[in-house]
Amino acid sequence: MAFLKWSESLSVHVTEIDEQHQKLIQLINTLHDAMLEKKGKEVLGKILDELAAYTVYHFSTEEKYMEQCGYPGLAFHKKEHDTFVGKVESLIQDYQANKLGITIELMTFLKDWVSNHIQITDKKYSDTFNKNGII
């Protein structure tokens, strides 16, 4: 069973971004499954790195569209993105230095942040993007 499930409640009604959100969810689920299967540090580290890189890619897509549309919440949204990227980079460094394991607490943090960010912050741009032809 998936740790985090995609549902219509997570849709921002922008196909490209919904697909990227689904990919992020899939990466979180892959990391969770690997943790449960007690995969080695190398496997977990690779998945964590992929999740971090894809998150940066995804955030740049959202921010590009926000700039295109003159979205008034860009500065706040970008700050949330930057804070999350910094947190994930710190987690990766701690993991690589054996100061942190991939735990259910870490997985819950990722799940909650992604779910809440999509449902609260990302949904705010849906109308602006759609009105500007980004669907």
UniProtKB/TrEMBL annotation:
> Which NCBIfam families does the protein's record reference?
bact_hemeryth (NF033749), hemeryth_dom (TIGR02481)
Q: Which SUPFAM superfamilies match?
A: Hemerythrin-like
**UniProt GO molecular function:** metal ion binding
The organism named in the record is Methanospirillum hungatei JF-1 (strain ATCC 27890 / DSM 864 / NBRC 100397 / JF-1)
Similarity section: Belongs to the hemerythrin family.
Tell me what this protein is called: Hemerythrin-like, metal-binding protein
Q: Which UniProt keywords apply?
A: Iron, Metal-binding
Instruction: Provide the Hemerythrin-like domain boundaries.
Output: 14-125
Which one Pfam family would you cite for this protein? Hemerythrin
